[in-house]
Amino acid sequence: MGLKQKIVQGGFLLASANLLAQFVSIGVNIILATILVPEDFGLVALATTYIGFVKIFTVIGFGSAIIYERKSTQRQLSTLYWLNIGLCTLTFSLVIATIPLAAEFYEEPRLVNVAMVAATSIVLYPLFTIHYKIEERDLRFKLLSKVNVIALLIGAVVGISSAYAGAGVYAIVLQSVIANVTRLILILYHSNWKPSLQFDFGSVSHMVWYAAKFKLANTMLFLERNIDYLIMGKVFTPTILGYYSFAYNIMYAPVKRISTIFSEVLFPSFSAIKDSNEKIISGYFKSKQLIAMVAFPGMSILSFNAEWLITSVFGDKWIEAIPIVEILCFAGALQAISQIGSVVFASIGKPEVSTYITGARTVLTILAIYLGCQVGILLVAYYLVIAKVLSYLILLVVLFYFIPFTLRFYLKHLWSPIAAVILLILIQVASVQGFFVLSPIGKLTLMSVLSGVLIVMTNLKILGNLYSVLTNRVT
After folding, report:
1. Please, what is the angle between helix 120-137 and helix 170-190, to 10°?
2. Torsion angles phi and psi, residue 198, rounded to 5
3. Deepest in the core among 322, 344, 382, 411, taking most CB within 10 A?
């Protein structure tokens, strides 16, 4: 099987797995949202963000180096394995030692126990991360897809059962922890690689350096995506933070899953053709086109129908989250096509470029949150949309510097999703102005059908090629 076919079929497998995972996650969130209260979601968001904040300073994560290196010796892999365990143990110790201080800072004593339970995942990650990345490097996406789906399902069952049993906020945490335990067991069972008692830092120093640069980029990305919780956790109550977390997850969860599919496939694939900028930029824009075909109309439809969808599905207690969802959906559309940009720089051996870009985006995010917090949560959401627009423009400028492309080439890949958004805006305006009267489900159906037809009819070639590769007709 050729590289092209492996890439597309791998993407299809991950897409199928993530689509199933998305439906499961939506179902779980609906159930948990009807049992738990907004305050629970705000508390978990604060706890997991704090843990992630500690991890960015202590855990490097060597998976990127393993994928980029392509071929690593047993000595190198074993060294990275033991080094990873040491760093994660240090991180776990720091979280346990400092979480009481964080609870005092946020004036939320319940944060201590919630964070301690959530922190157990830290000691699980290093036990299977190297194994997982080896499978990803070797493009074994079928195995990884099965593992992730099974882990999600088992975690979902535990989370829902715990919520019904009265576990409260801990139901959300246990869902994640149990999913990681399941992932650990399955990966170790299927992996052919086993660590040996070897440690030679000199043999992996160049890999550690590459991983450190990659990690620095991811650190800035983490800050960009989570600095809002760290700041707003001090300014707003857990309940308001819960509304924001709920809205952000509705917007970001689909975006994250879509982008993760492409990142997991593109990084190892681009690394295999890292000497061909033309192939990389072509693959990048085709991937961006596929993402935009789903994210642009999907996020717009969600925004324009948020009131009916949220009250019908999640209940009236989440009404306060509706305007936040309506605003943040447009930030989600931009974030969807921005998120895989770092893959290009990592693939050409310059992950530090992503650090500079994400650093600028983090500054914009902090500024948006600071200005918005002076008035209220809705203004925060509006300013975040502006920050995402400016961040995307920065990405395009830097990408053009390293791998030039024309405006025509750019519009060739994105004009159809943009046209779909314009069509949806026109339908929304016509509905609001009273040019036609439809029931909420009627409007949702009309928007979905018309935008879907437009996307399919204007992208027949790329969809046809995708189908051909998936059915082994293109080699």
Report:
1. 40
2. -130, 145
3. 344
CA 354 to chain centre: 16
d(CA 245, CA 44): 9
Q: For residues 432 and 378, is the Cβ–Cβ distance under 8 A?
A: no
pTM of this structure:
0.70
Let me know if residue 127 belongs to a domain.
Answer: yes
Q: Count the helix, strand and coil residues of the chain and give each as a percent rounded to the nearest 5.
A: 85, 0, 15
Question: What number of other Cβ atoms are within 10 A of residue 160's Cβ?
Answer: 17
Q: Give the CA angle between residues 17, 219, 140 to the nearest 5°.
A: 30
Q: How far apart are the first and last CA of the chain?
A: 7
For 377-423, the pLDDT digits (tens) are 899 999 999 999 999 999 899 888 888 888 888 888 899 999 999 99
| Chain position carrying tokens 């576990």 | 167
Do the Cβ atoms of 441 and 309 come closer than 8 Å? no
Closest CA to 369 of 341, 394, 355, 388: 388
Which helix (H) or strand (E) covers residue 241, if one does? Answer: helix 238-272
Of 400, 387, 399, the residue nearest 353 (C-alpha):
399
CA pair distance 352, 9, nearest whole angstrom: 30
CA dihedral 451, 453, 454, 460 (to 10 degrees): 140
Q: For residue 218, give the DSSP letter.
A: H
Instruction: Tell me how far apart the alpha carbons of residues 153 and 161 are, in angstroms, rounded to a whole number.
Output: 12
How many domains are there within the chain?
Answer: 1
Among residues 181, 43, 180, 56, which one has the least CA distance to residue 114? 43
Task: Specify if 475 maps to a domain.
Answer: no
Residue 142 lies in a domain: yes
Q: What are phi and psi of 348, to 5 degrees?
A: -95, 15
Q: In which domain, by residue range, is 396 found?
A: 3-470
Give the pair of three-digit tokens for residue 93. Answer: 């110790």
Question: Token pair 């004036």 is at which residue?
Answer: 107
Closest CA to 322 of 228, 429, 250, 225: 250
DSSP state of 132: H
The DSSP symbol for 316 reads: G
Distance CA 155, CA 445 (A): 32
What is the C-alpha to C-alpha distance for residues 64 and 347, in angstroms, rounded to an integer? 10
Q: Tell me, yes or no, whether 31 lies in a domain.
A: yes
Q: What is the tens place of the pLDDT at every residue in 244-256?
A: 888 887 776 666 6
- Tell me the average pLDDT across 95-118: 86
Beta-carbon count within 10 A of 2 CB: 10
